[in-house]
Amino acid sequence: MSILKKVREKKVMSMVKTTIVVLFSLLLIPSVNAALWTITYPRPLDDSDERSQYPIDLLTLALDKTGVNYELRPSDRILLTGKAMRQLKENREVNIVWSMTDTQREKDLTPIRIPIAKGLIGLRVFVVNKDKEENFKRDLSITDMRKLVPVQGEEWPDTKILQANGFNVFTVPEFREAYDLTKQGKIDFFPRSVIEVEAELAEEGRSGSLALEPSLALYYPTAMYYFVSASNKTLANLITTGLERAIEDGSFDALFYATYSPILERLNVKERKVFTLENPLLPLETPLESDALWFKNDFTNN
Questions:
Q1: SS3 of 92, please?
Q2: pLDDT (tens digit per residue) in 61-95
């Protein structure tokens, strides 16, 4: 056998071996769809907390639209919003949180700028102590409203929004403390989003001292987003893709209206006098011009 022939045979064998190694390696690399995405969200105060159900359902819908293999699960311990945001920023315990946006949160984290509740997080009705109901009448002006003291959480964007609009806000470190103060009559009212208030009153209202004020509301433009870590662009892109597909095929709206239309009707939103406030915390990137992303209702003209 000639030297040239031997060299050629060695080259062929080398190419065959290389091809086998490459093919074997490819078999060991899972595709994006085959890899398991473990997505951990903050465990709510109670496993039956209805406020968390819609964000979880919408996230499930979005992920299903992408075709990825995923597991959604709550964190091992209860995480309220402020703590959850800090843990997310540090890539600990959770890798997704849903909450109202503001400029600081968008600096610290990656917002997925699709308002998951179509702006309803900014439509606020009032939980009051029954002994204070007489302070609220439909003929109140915004000047009259500013004389009443609302309670809010120390770290909530709502606190700064109300303060910027002239309200003297009493703040508390924990969510349930706000309800405790309302029950005790130590504040005048607790503004709660229309997407939160019914579930909360079902739990907190058992004492019998609370009431839902029937005729007034506040509104400020804002959005509740899914947030992920600033370093997790891949997850952000994945969820964005799923949400956009759900918007395009109508399943986003179907879920939203099935969830919230009955609540808005029970709260008699169309008949309420609504005071519209400014939101100085609203980031410039908020997609206010995209009509399809927002709930359309004539509650912003009072």
A1: coil
A2: 999 999 999 999 999 999 988 899 999 999 999 99
